[in-house]
Design brief:
single chain; 315 residues; alpha/beta; Rossmann fold; 8-stranded mixed sheet; two-stranded antiparallel ribbon; P-loop_NTPase; AAA_dom; DNA_Partitioning_ATPase
Length: 315
Protein backbone atom coordinates (compact mmCIF):
# COMPACT_ATOMS: atom_id res chain seq x y z
CA UNK A 1 0.00 0.00 0.00
CA UNK A 2 1.25 3.47 -0.87
CA UNK A 3 0.87 5.43 2.34
CA UNK A 4 0.64 9.24 2.31
CA UNK A 5 3.27 10.97 4.37
CA UNK A 6 2.10 13.58 6.86
CA UNK A 7 3.79 16.94 6.98
CA UNK A 8 3.26 19.95 9.20
CA UNK A 9 -0.34 20.62 10.13
CA UNK A 10 -1.69 17.28 8.99
CA UNK A 11 -0.91 17.86 5.33
CA UNK A 12 -0.53 14.85 3.09
CA UNK A 13 1.46 14.24 -0.04
CA UNK A 14 1.55 11.28 -2.38
CA UNK A 15 -0.90 8.63 -3.48
CA UNK A 16 -3.53 7.21 -1.17
CA UNK A 17 -4.24 3.51 -1.64
CA UNK A 18 -7.15 2.45 0.52
CA UNK A 19 -8.09 -0.71 -1.33
CA UNK A 20 -9.50 -3.69 0.52
CA UNK A 21 -7.58 -6.94 0.21
CA UNK A 22 -9.88 -9.72 -1.05
CA UNK A 23 -8.26 -12.47 1.05
CA UNK A 24 -9.21 -11.81 4.67
CA UNK A 25 -8.70 -15.29 6.04
CA UNK A 26 -5.99 -14.21 8.46
CA UNK A 27 -8.05 -11.27 9.61
CA UNK A 28 -11.13 -13.42 10.01
CA UNK A 29 -9.13 -15.76 12.22
CA UNK A 30 -8.26 -12.86 14.49
CA UNK A 31 -4.61 -12.40 13.49
CA UNK A 32 -4.03 -8.72 14.20
CA UNK A 33 -7.58 -7.65 13.29
CA UNK A 34 -8.69 -4.58 15.19
CA UNK A 35 -8.81 -4.00 18.92
CA UNK A 36 -9.02 -6.76 21.47
CA UNK A 37 -12.54 -6.50 22.97
CA UNK A 38 -11.14 -7.54 26.34
CA UNK A 39 -8.54 -4.74 26.40
CA UNK A 40 -10.15 -1.58 27.79
CA UNK A 41 -7.06 0.44 26.90
CA UNK A 42 -7.50 -0.13 23.15
CA UNK A 43 -10.03 2.05 21.35
CA UNK A 44 -12.15 1.16 18.29
CA UNK A 45 -9.44 2.54 16.02
CA UNK A 46 -7.11 -0.22 17.23
CA UNK A 47 -4.80 2.31 18.93
CA UNK A 48 -4.26 2.80 22.66
CA UNK A 49 -6.82 5.19 24.10
CA UNK A 50 -5.39 8.67 24.62
CA UNK A 51 -6.44 10.86 27.51
CA UNK A 52 -8.27 13.97 26.34
CA UNK A 53 -8.66 16.50 29.17
CA UNK A 54 -11.88 18.30 29.93
CA UNK A 55 -11.97 21.60 28.00
CA UNK A 56 -11.06 24.72 29.91
CA UNK A 57 -13.71 27.32 30.70
CA UNK A 58 -13.51 30.33 28.37
CA UNK A 59 -13.39 33.89 29.63
CA UNK A 60 -14.35 35.30 26.22
CA UNK A 61 -15.50 34.07 22.82
CA UNK A 62 -13.84 34.21 19.41
CA UNK A 63 -12.30 34.50 16.99
CA UNK A 64 -13.84 31.40 15.47
CA UNK A 65 -12.10 28.35 14.13
CA UNK A 66 -13.90 27.52 10.88
CA UNK A 67 -14.27 23.83 10.07
CA UNK A 68 -15.78 22.43 6.88
CA UNK A 69 -17.53 19.06 7.22
CA UNK A 70 -16.74 17.66 3.81
CA UNK A 71 -17.06 14.45 1.81
CA UNK A 72 -18.36 14.29 -1.75
CA UNK A 73 -20.08 10.98 -1.01
CA UNK A 74 -23.57 11.36 0.39
CA UNK A 75 -24.94 9.51 3.39
CA UNK A 76 -21.70 9.35 5.39
CA UNK A 77 -22.89 11.38 8.37
CA UNK A 78 -21.85 14.94 7.49
CA UNK A 79 -25.06 16.60 8.62
CA UNK A 80 -25.52 14.37 11.67
CA UNK A 81 -21.94 15.06 12.73
CA UNK A 82 -22.26 18.81 12.18
CA UNK A 83 -25.37 19.03 14.36
CA UNK A 84 -24.15 16.80 17.16
CA UNK A 85 -20.57 18.06 17.25
CA UNK A 86 -21.92 21.60 17.38
CA UNK A 87 -24.25 20.72 20.25
CA UNK A 88 -21.46 18.97 22.15
CA UNK A 89 -19.13 21.96 21.68
CA UNK A 90 -21.90 24.21 23.01
CA UNK A 91 -22.21 21.97 26.07
CA UNK A 92 -18.55 22.72 26.77
CA UNK A 93 -19.26 26.44 26.77
CA UNK A 94 -18.22 27.15 23.18
CA UNK A 95 -20.32 29.50 21.07
CA UNK A 96 -21.05 27.75 17.79
CA UNK A 97 -22.47 28.76 14.41
CA UNK A 98 -23.69 25.99 12.12
CA UNK A 99 -23.74 26.90 8.43
CA UNK A 100 -26.07 24.91 6.18
CA UNK A 101 -24.27 25.07 2.84
CA UNK A 102 -26.24 22.32 1.14
CA UNK A 103 -29.22 23.24 -1.08
CA UNK A 104 -31.07 20.21 0.31
CA UNK A 105 -31.28 22.04 3.65
CA UNK A 106 -30.80 18.84 5.66
CA UNK A 107 -28.96 20.64 8.47
CA UNK A 108 -31.85 23.08 8.85
CA UNK A 109 -34.41 20.26 8.85
CA UNK A 110 -32.34 18.37 11.42
CA UNK A 111 -32.71 21.34 13.76
CA UNK A 112 -36.45 21.62 13.30
CA UNK A 113 -36.45 24.37 10.64
CA UNK A 114 -38.66 24.00 7.56
CA UNK A 115 -36.49 25.34 4.68
CA UNK A 116 -39.37 26.07 2.31
CA UNK A 117 -40.85 28.48 4.85
CA UNK A 118 -37.73 30.62 5.12
CA UNK A 119 -37.84 34.10 3.62
CA UNK A 120 -34.07 34.58 3.83
CA UNK A 121 -31.26 32.04 3.85
CA UNK A 122 -27.53 31.90 3.28
CA UNK A 123 -28.32 32.28 -0.44
CA UNK A 124 -29.47 35.85 0.19
CA UNK A 125 -26.37 36.57 2.27
CA UNK A 126 -23.91 35.53 -0.42
CA UNK A 127 -25.82 36.83 -3.44
CA UNK A 128 -27.51 40.04 -2.25
CA UNK A 129 -25.57 42.99 -0.88
CA UNK A 130 -28.64 44.23 0.99
CA UNK A 131 -28.99 41.03 3.06
CA UNK A 132 -27.58 41.28 6.58
CA UNK A 133 -25.95 38.13 7.93
CA UNK A 134 -27.14 38.73 11.49
CA UNK A 135 -30.75 39.01 10.27
CA UNK A 136 -30.56 35.52 8.74
CA UNK A 137 -28.84 33.72 11.64
CA UNK A 138 -31.33 31.89 13.86
CA UNK A 139 -31.01 30.59 17.39
CA UNK A 140 -31.58 26.87 18.02
CA UNK A 141 -32.91 24.84 20.92
CA UNK A 142 -29.31 24.42 22.10
CA UNK A 143 -28.00 27.33 24.15
CA UNK A 144 -24.91 28.81 22.53
CA UNK A 145 -25.54 27.24 19.11
CA UNK A 146 -26.90 29.26 16.18
CA UNK A 147 -27.87 28.30 12.63
CA UNK A 148 -27.36 29.95 9.27
CA UNK A 149 -30.06 28.09 7.31
CA UNK A 150 -30.35 27.06 3.68
CA UNK A 151 -32.90 25.82 1.19
CA UNK A 152 -33.16 24.91 -2.49
CA UNK A 153 -32.48 28.54 -3.50
CA UNK A 154 -28.80 27.89 -2.81
CA UNK A 155 -28.62 25.60 -5.84
CA UNK A 156 -28.93 28.68 -8.06
CA UNK A 157 -25.85 30.23 -6.44
CA UNK A 158 -23.54 27.65 -8.02
CA UNK A 159 -24.51 28.93 -11.46
CA UNK A 160 -24.73 32.60 -10.56
CA UNK A 161 -21.36 32.69 -8.80
CA UNK A 162 -19.52 31.62 -11.95
CA UNK A 163 -19.68 35.17 -13.31
CA UNK A 164 -18.65 36.79 -10.01
CA UNK A 165 -15.20 38.21 -9.31
CA UNK A 166 -13.56 36.28 -6.47
CA UNK A 167 -16.32 33.69 -6.63
CA UNK A 168 -14.38 31.12 -4.56
CA UNK A 169 -14.12 33.50 -1.56
CA UNK A 170 -17.78 34.55 -1.45
CA UNK A 171 -18.61 32.53 1.67
CA UNK A 172 -15.48 33.68 3.47
CA UNK A 173 -16.43 37.30 2.89
CA UNK A 174 -19.99 36.63 4.06
CA UNK A 175 -18.90 35.03 7.35
CA UNK A 176 -16.21 37.61 8.14
CA UNK A 177 -18.49 40.01 10.11
CA UNK A 178 -19.44 37.42 12.78
CA UNK A 179 -16.30 35.31 13.14
CA UNK A 180 -15.19 37.29 16.17
CA UNK A 181 -18.43 36.38 17.97
CA UNK A 182 -18.09 32.59 17.80
CA UNK A 183 -15.57 29.98 18.91
CA UNK A 184 -16.42 27.52 16.14
CA UNK A 185 -18.12 27.83 12.76
CA UNK A 186 -19.08 24.42 11.33
CA UNK A 187 -19.96 24.33 7.62
CA UNK A 188 -22.09 21.42 6.41
CA UNK A 189 -21.06 20.95 2.76
CA UNK A 190 -23.09 19.43 -0.04
CA UNK A 191 -22.10 15.95 -1.30
CA UNK A 192 -20.11 17.17 -4.29
CA UNK A 193 -16.84 18.93 -5.09
CA UNK A 194 -18.44 21.85 -6.93
CA UNK A 195 -18.12 25.60 -6.44
CA UNK A 196 -20.09 25.67 -3.18
CA UNK A 197 -17.77 23.12 -1.59
CA UNK A 198 -14.72 25.02 -2.87
CA UNK A 199 -16.18 28.13 -1.20
CA UNK A 200 -16.47 26.24 2.08
CA UNK A 201 -12.86 25.03 1.83
CA UNK A 202 -11.65 28.53 0.98
CA UNK A 203 -13.40 29.89 4.08
CA UNK A 204 -12.20 27.17 6.46
CA UNK A 205 -9.17 26.70 8.66
CA UNK A 206 -9.65 22.95 8.72
CA UNK A 207 -11.53 20.11 7.03
CA UNK A 208 -13.24 17.33 8.93
CA UNK A 209 -13.88 14.27 6.79
CA UNK A 210 -16.67 11.98 8.01
CA UNK A 211 -15.89 8.57 6.57
CA UNK A 212 -18.41 5.75 6.63
CA UNK A 213 -16.71 2.47 7.51
CA UNK A 214 -17.67 0.95 4.19
CA UNK A 215 -15.60 0.19 1.09
CA UNK A 216 -17.25 2.63 -1.33
CA UNK A 217 -16.60 5.52 1.06
CA UNK A 218 -12.88 4.86 0.81
CA UNK A 219 -12.75 5.25 -2.94
CA UNK A 220 -13.47 8.98 -2.93
CA UNK A 221 -11.04 9.96 -0.18
CA UNK A 222 -8.07 10.39 -2.52
CA UNK A 223 -10.11 12.66 -4.82
CA UNK A 224 -11.25 14.76 -1.86
CA UNK A 225 -7.70 15.14 -0.54
CA UNK A 226 -6.54 16.15 -4.01
CA UNK A 227 -9.21 18.89 -4.05
CA UNK A 228 -8.14 20.05 -0.59
CA UNK A 229 -4.53 20.27 -1.79
CA UNK A 230 -5.55 22.37 -4.81
CA UNK A 231 -7.59 24.75 -2.66
CA UNK A 232 -4.62 25.09 -0.30
CA UNK A 233 -2.21 25.84 -3.13
CA UNK A 234 -4.44 28.29 -5.01
CA UNK A 235 -6.89 29.85 -2.55
CA UNK A 236 -6.31 29.11 1.12
CA UNK A 237 -2.74 28.31 2.23
CA UNK A 238 -3.86 27.90 5.87
CA UNK A 239 -6.24 25.04 5.09
CA UNK A 240 -5.48 21.78 6.93
CA UNK A 241 -7.09 18.41 7.39
CA UNK A 242 -8.34 18.68 10.97
CA UNK A 243 -9.25 15.04 11.21
CA UNK A 244 -10.98 12.01 9.74
CA UNK A 245 -14.04 10.82 11.65
CA UNK A 246 -15.09 7.19 11.31
CA UNK A 247 -18.89 6.99 11.17
CA UNK A 248 -21.50 4.24 10.94
CA UNK A 249 -19.00 1.84 12.46
CA UNK A 250 -20.29 -1.62 13.31
CA UNK A 251 -17.69 -3.45 15.42
CA UNK A 252 -19.52 -6.75 14.86
CA UNK A 253 -18.69 -6.87 11.14
CA UNK A 254 -15.36 -7.85 9.65
CA UNK A 255 -15.80 -5.32 6.85
CA UNK A 256 -16.16 -2.31 9.18
CA UNK A 257 -13.14 -3.37 11.19
CA UNK A 258 -10.99 -3.86 8.10
CA UNK A 259 -11.97 -0.48 6.68
CA UNK A 260 -11.08 1.09 10.03
CA UNK A 261 -7.72 -0.66 10.04
CA UNK A 262 -6.98 0.52 6.49
CA UNK A 263 -7.86 4.16 7.28
CA UNK A 264 -5.73 4.21 10.44
CA UNK A 265 -2.80 2.67 8.54
CA UNK A 266 -3.06 5.34 5.86
CA UNK A 267 -3.71 8.45 7.94
CA UNK A 268 -2.36 7.64 11.41
CA UNK A 269 -2.99 10.17 14.15
CA UNK A 270 -5.11 12.39 11.94
CA UNK A 271 -7.93 9.86 12.46
CA UNK A 272 -9.95 10.87 15.51
CA UNK A 273 -9.98 8.42 18.40
CA UNK A 274 -13.71 9.05 18.71
CA UNK A 275 -15.75 6.72 16.51
CA UNK A 276 -19.46 7.03 15.73
CA UNK A 277 -21.21 3.66 15.83
CA UNK A 278 -24.39 2.77 13.99
CA UNK A 279 -27.46 3.34 16.16
CA UNK A 280 -31.20 3.78 15.67
CA UNK A 281 -31.01 6.93 17.77
CA UNK A 282 -29.71 9.13 14.96
CA UNK A 283 -32.77 8.75 12.66
CA UNK A 284 -34.95 9.49 15.70
CA UNK A 285 -33.16 12.78 16.31
CA UNK A 286 -33.75 13.90 12.71
CA UNK A 287 -37.50 13.45 13.14
CA UNK A 288 -37.40 15.21 16.51
CA UNK A 289 -35.33 18.11 15.17
CA UNK A 290 -32.94 17.80 18.12
CA UNK A 291 -29.27 16.85 18.50
CA UNK A 292 -28.68 13.50 20.13
CA UNK A 293 -27.11 15.21 23.14
CA UNK A 294 -30.60 16.53 23.98
CA UNK A 295 -32.75 13.72 22.61
CA UNK A 296 -30.80 10.87 24.23
CA UNK A 297 -28.17 12.52 26.45
CA UNK A 298 -26.97 9.27 28.02
CA UNK A 299 -26.76 7.26 24.80
CA UNK A 300 -23.53 5.95 23.31
CA UNK A 301 -23.98 8.39 20.41
CA UNK A 302 -24.06 11.36 22.80
CA UNK A 303 -20.94 10.13 24.55
CA UNK A 304 -19.15 9.68 21.23
CA UNK A 305 -19.87 13.23 20.08
CA UNK A 306 -18.87 14.68 23.44
CA UNK A 307 -15.61 12.77 23.13
CA UNK A 308 -15.18 14.15 19.60
CA UNK A 309 -15.84 17.69 20.87
CA UNK A 310 -13.07 17.29 23.43
CA UNK A 311 -10.70 16.11 20.69
CA UNK A 312 -11.64 19.01 18.41
CA UNK A 313 -11.03 21.54 21.18
CA UNK A 314 -7.74 19.88 22.15
CA UNK A 315 -6.51 19.89 18.53
Amino acid sequence: MSTPQPSAGGRYRGAVDLSITPDTSEIANGDGMGPDPDDANIGPTGRPRRHIPEPAVLDAHGPASVLAMCNQKGGVGKTTSTINLGAALAEYGRKVLLVDFDPQGALSVGLGVQPHQLEQTIYNVIMERSAELRDVIRSTSVAGMDLLPSNIDLSAAEVQLVAEVGREQTLERALRPVRAEYDFVLIDCQPSLGLLTVNALAAAHGVMIPLECEFFSLRGVALLIDTIEKVRERLNPDLEISGILATMFDPRTLHSREVMSRVVDAFGDIVFDSVINRTVRFPETTVAGEPITRWAPRSSGSKAYRSLAREVIAR
